[in-house]
Amino acid sequence: MFHRIGIILGVFLGLLAASCGRNYEIFQTTRPLMGTAVGMAVVSQDARRAYAALDAAFDEMARLEAMMSVFRKDSELNRLNEEASRHPVTVSEELFQVIELSLHISQITHGAFDITVGPLMNLWPFYKNEKTLPSSEALQEVLSRVGYRHLVVSSKDRSVFFAISGMALDLGGIAKGFAIDRAVRVLKGYGMAAALVNAGGDIFAYGSKPDGQPWRVGLQHPRDSKQLLAVLTMSDMAMVTSGDYERYFLVDGERYSHIIDPRSGFSARETASVTVMAESAAYADGLATGIMVLGAEAGMPLVESLPGVHALIITEGSKKALELHVSKGFPLLLDEASLAAQGVQLKALER
Ligand code: ADP
Ligand code: MG
User: Domain locations in the chain?
Assistant: First the structure.
């Protein structure tokens, strides 16, 4: 996850050297958060203010992680999971917002993105050391407790209720994106002229670097972590990637990725990686996870139908050759010759 999309650090490290009074400079910090390395860079004229902004933005992400992580025993999410089968539970504004956005993404992806995958995540050995596959009886039982349509929310009292007892929410597919958006909001609140927040390759960038150039990010090759597929520039948008290559386990040579098709209960197999650009990181995060399940054939028409959303979907064709599917607005300058040298084939590039 650390290197999924490597930020080209060198690009701005050099700029740090020159430090004279009122010039705009880049200030940056990295901290471990949300199971990954989170790096933030801001453009400011004032070092003290810049570091205060960075501190506050990291604190905000840590606060949201403590609220929404299933790995924290005392998180608000785990409290909700324990109680909401019995009665409606009123939740914090942030948690409610993430749940509402998740339901919206469930609707537009026809259930491919679904935060009620909690029982499935607990059944498959993602969170366990022993990697054994579940029986089909266990899978059927668990599937009966999965489905966003059984999630009852009321905006009147910000309450959440599980219509089927034993349901559980897992926000792993969207909370990181939401936290990135909130970090950006904090940085803007501190008056930072430009910033880039990079949570293990999930990115939001706004403004431009002190030299006026846009932020540059590299797209990692999904089958070779040392290789970059391409470099692209971005401003005032989020770019989030989901892939089958960062977190998975193998049984008898079969790859089981941590993204589950909520309809079958099995790992998504359609797609190697999905990179989504959108105006918010939360939206991009949820869509990327959902499109991993949908695959390119159903996912690309969805992307083209959503205003302000662009995507790069990578699938594995015959003989494991990679195929790139690029939406019309995805700002990727692809060099077909160098991609071919990497064994990658372009598909549906209508430009
Ligand atoms: P990453 O965690 O690498 O950023 P994703 O954003 O794709 O990757 O999130 C994967 C996580 O989303 C899983 O670990 C799990 O918590 C959750 N999840 C798995 N399948 C689904 C699904 N179909 N819909 C919503 N969330 C899912
Ligand atoms: Mg996601």
Answer: 1-351
Closest C-alpha among 112, 106, 105, 103 to residue 296 = 112
Which residue type, as a one-letter code, is found at position 102? S
Residues with CB under 6 A from ligand 1: 1, 113-115, 117, 121, 170, 172-173, 176, 242, 246-247, 258-260, 262, 285, 288-289, 293
Tens of pLDDT, residue by residue over 276-303, are 999 999 999 999 999 999 999 999 999 9
Helices and strands counted in the chain (H then E):
9, 16
Tokens 């049984």 sit on residue: 251
What six digits make up the tokens of 22?
Answer: 């009122």
Output the pTM of the full model: 0.91
**Chain length of the chain:** 351
Measured in angstroms, how far is the CA atom of residue 289 from the centroid of ligand 2?
A: 4
Measured in Å, residue 318 CA sits from the centre of ligand 2 at 27
Please identify, by atom number, the ligand 1 atom nearest to the C-alpha of residue 288: 7
Distance 90 CA to ligand 2 centre (A): 25
Tokens 């400011």, located at residue? 44
Report for 195-204, 217-226, 239-248: range of highest mean pLDDT: 195-204
Tell which one of 98, 117, 241 to mutate to probe ligand 1, the residue whose CB is within 8 A of the most ligand atoms.
Answer: 117
CATH number assigned to the domain covering 1-351: 3.10.520.10
129-173 pLDDT per residue, tens: 888 889 999 999 999 999 999 999 999 999 999 999 999 999 999
Report in angstroms the alpha-carbon separations of 320 from 181, 244, 315.
Answer: 36, 14, 9
Mutation to probe ligand 1, out of 68, 69, 169, 170 (largest number of atoms < 8 A from CB) = 170
Residue 310's Cα: distance from chain center in Å? 14
CB 67 within 8 A of CB 77: yes
